Amino acid sequence: MLEVTGLRVSYGGIQAVRGITFHVNEGEMVALIGANGAGKSSTLRALARLLDPAGGSVRYRGKELVSLPPHRLVGEGIALVPEGRGVFPRMSSLENLRMGAYARNDKAAIERDLEHVLSLFPRLKERAQQTAGTLSGGEQQMLAIGRALMSKPRLMLLDEPSMGLAPIMVQKIFEVIRTVALDGMTILLVEQNAKLALEVSQRGYVMESGEITVTDDSHKLLADPKVRAAYLGE
């Protein structure tokens, strides 16, 4: 579904991503792990067209994305859940969710999807009229994921969904991520919690200093002594 070839991302004279190549098959959840500053989020931002790549190719379902403006990606079936959540703080939870469907005009299906998202996140249903800026960090993360789901994506890009959250909230959010994946959603997961990312994904890529250094099935990466020592604290 997603084919990335020779992707490069630069900030001024600094190369954050150094010609990486990877792919995500339809229906897969793939994890991109690595330390802070490895280039994971820069990769995701380039895929979402929030950064202009310095080089390389990004093909989604056979179509080149590098020249497309960011808003066109929604219509192509790609949704980003950004690092830091990016909710609209003065809008209610319900309004935020409806914003996720701004490019759709299938009103009956939108209402069905809204009910589905609220069933995935009962806490959001309880806080439907509460302004997003007053929600907890975990609730805002739920809202960001729910808003992305409202666009009815084929591919979801998740950027650090566990960042800054209490363990119980991380557990709840990843339960939903698992559920969405089991329903057939294709997911590219960028996550600093390597153990958690590899436990929920089928395959993983390890990034170091802007390069992909290791790739394998997730269960093999979990058992790899070097990966365990570097990223799992063992």
**H/E series, N to C?**
EEEHEEHEHHHHEHEHEEHH
As a percent range, the share of helical residues equals: 25-40%
Count of helix runs: 10
What is the CATH third-level topology name? Rossmann fold
In round numbers, the mean pLDDT is 93
As a percent range, the share of strand residues is 25-35%
Q: By CATH's scheme, which homologous superfamily applies? A: P-loop containing nucleotide triphosphate hydrolases
CATH architecture: 3-Layer(aba) Sandwich
Radius of gyration: 17 Å
Q: What is the CATH class?
A: Alpha Beta
Measure the end-to-end span: 34 Å
Largest sheet: 6 strands, mixed
The general outline is globular
Q: Into how many domains do the coordinates divide?
A: 1
Number of strands: 10
Side-by-side strand order of the widest sheet:
6-7-8-3-9-10
Structural class: alpha/beta
Regions with little confidence, pLDDT below 50 for 5+ residues: none
Describe the protein's topology:
Layout: E1 2-11, E2 14-24, E3 29-34, H1 40-47, E4 55-60, E5 63-64, H2 70-76, E6 78-81, H3 93-99, H4 107-120, H5 122-126, H6 137-149, E7 155-159, H7 167-182, E8 186-190, H8 194-200, E9 203-208, E10 211-217, H9 218-223, H10 225-231
Parallel strand pairs: 3-8, 3-9, 6-7, 7-8
Antiparallel strand pairs: 1-2, 1-4, 4-5, 9-10
Polypeptide structure, described:
This protein has 234 residues and is α/β, with parallel strands linked by helices. The chain has a single domain (26-52, 69-231), classed as P-loop containing nucleotide triphosphate hydrolases (Rossmann fold, 3-Layer(aba) Sandwich). It is built from 10 helices and 10 strands. It has helices at residues 40-47, 70-76, 93-99, 107-120, 122-126, 137-149, 167-182, 194-200, 218-223, 225-231; strands at residues 2-11, 14-24, 29-34, 55-60, 63-64, 78-81, 155-159, 186-190, 203-208, 211-217. The chain has a 6-stranded mixed beta sheet with strand order 6-7-8-3-9-10, sandwiched between helices. A 4-stranded antiparallel beta sheet has the order 2-1-4-5, with helices on one face. Helix 3 runs parallel beside helix 6. The mean pLDDT is 93.
